[in-house]
Specification:
This protein is α+β, with helices and mostly antiparallel strands and 67 residues long. Helices cover 42% and strands 12% of the residues. The chain contains three helices and three strands. The chain has a three-stranded antiparallel β-sheet with strand order 1-3-2.
């Protein structure tokens, strides 16, 4: 049996990635973020596994040392 693909809407993508709405769309346009899938005439979403893979591929951010 195949596993169901979960689709995340933009607010959840923003929450999971920490990116703003405009940053998400700019990254999609630049080809550096997963492409959304069309859900209807005015609705899109992102495949959860693709967003998770994008997050895993990003280097870990470390807090800057305060001097």
């Amino acid at each position: 049996m195949t596993e169901a693909i979960r689709i995340m809407r933009r607010p959840e993508v923003q929450s999971r990635t920490g990116l703003s709405r405009s940053s998400i769309y700019a990254a999609v346009a630049a080809g550096t973020f997963p492409q959304p899938v069309k859900l209807g005439t005015r609705a899109i979403g992102w495949r959860e596994h693709e967003v998770a893979a994008w997050l895993r591929a990003r280097p870990a951010r470390r807090p800057r040392a305060v001097m």
